[in-house]
Design brief:
The complex is a heterodimer. Chain A is built from four helices and no strands. Chain A is mainly alpha-helical. Chain B is an all-alpha fold. Chain B is built from nine helices and no strands. The chains are: A mainly alpha, B mainly alpha. The interface of A and B includes residues 49, 51 and 63 of A.
Chain lengths: ~140, ~180
């Protein structure tokens, strides 16, 4: 069965692009077929006539900077989500512990601790602020 | 650092490794897209989208192929999406994602000596042009192209053959 020139040309294309090796059958067909010889020569010419040089994108740095900023945002969002999940977990544990104390009969003691925190913490606040300001002034003075 | 080490580090969210990978692959992706779209702005937008997608999906990259091949696959799919989107917006346009000669009048494509080559590429249908570009300029194997294009190897061969015939006839017309 004779193969058509179309098929031979596809095989020549495979050879040209390194997908297969040149065979004796192909070589003898090339010797006897003007059309396929022209096709074979045309494939070689494509290498010089279809040159399309690579060139740098002048906006490459801007695009890459945008991408890196997006990566930062993405990891920031991920960190926030993790922080939120950790907060929910700790808050749940704290609430659970409080409820456990209440149901085990320590409700009064818990209320006392709770109230003392709320009474003492606001009273401590001015002292804490003053201490922080003094520390800041010392640091500035040294600088 | 070698590519596989860079990929491992990038998967662990190492910004330097990611930056290096993107910097190394940028010319390939941009070069491929500029030949495919023949429009600088579209090529730049699609390049950015390609890297953005890669950034979000780098964890799923299995390193069976080269990193640049994976990026080219993403870029190809984005180009197909862009063509579909534009054909919905402008159904009357025959070859919508490829700019007309007037669109790129002042672009690098026209200024440089390879304006004639871009003119010939512009006349090829999109899917066939992509196959020709992948084979002729980037030397991907038929198998790789069939994976990138998501079509059988036979289709890749026939598309490439059609492109060669079309280019030969275009060059013959110009020579006359």
């Amino acid at each position: 069965m004779n193969k058509s020139c179309e098929m031979y040309q596809m095989e020549l294309m495979d050879v040209h692009y390194g997908e297969s090796e040149m065979t004796e059958e192909l070589r003898s067909h090339l010797d006897g077929c003007e059309d396929c010889s022209r096709y074979w020569a045309g494939l070689g010419e494509l290498e010089t006539s279809m040159v399309f040089p690579e060139f740098e994108d002048p906006f490459k740095e801007i695009v890459l900077d945008k991408l890196m900023a997006e990566r930062e945002n993405k990891s920031g969002r991920k960190r926030n989500a993790l922080d939120f999940a950790a907060f929910i977990l700790l808050a749940g544990l704290f609430l659970g512990a409080c409820l456990a104390l209440v149901f085990s009969g320590h409700a009064v003691a818990l209320s006392k601790i709770y109230l003392s925190i709320f009474m003492v913490a606001p009273l401590m606040l001015p002292f804490l602020i003053k201490r922080q300001m003094t520390k800041g002034a010392h640091t500035n003075g040294r600088a | 650092m070698k590519e596989d080490q860079l990929i491992k580090a990038a998967k662990k969210n190492d910004p330097k490794a990611l930056d290096q990978l993107f910097r190394d692959s940028y010319p390939i992706v941009y070069g491929y897209l500029i030949k495919t779209t023949l429009n600088e702005q579209t090529a730049r937008d699609l390049t950015q989208e390609t890297f953005l997608k890669a950034l979000n999906k780098i964890g799923s990259f299995n390193a069976k192929s080269k990193f640049s091949t994976w990026l080219i696959s993403i870029a190809t799919n984005l180009h197909k999406d862009e063509l579909r989107k534009r054909s919905r917006e402008r159904p009357e346009s025959a070859n919508p994602a490829v700019s007309s000669a007037s669109d790129v009048e002042k672009s690098v494509l026209e200024r440089e000596a390879f304006g004639k080559v871009s003119e010939i590429l512009r006349k090829l249908p999109d899917a066939k042009r992509r196959v020709f570009i992948l084979k002729h300029y980037y030397h991907y194997s038929y198998e790789e192209i069939s994976r990138i294009e998501n079509c059988p190897i036979g289709t890749v061969r026939s598309r490439l053959h059609d492109c060669i015939n079309k280019i030969r006839s275009e060059m013959g017309v110009e020579a006359q």
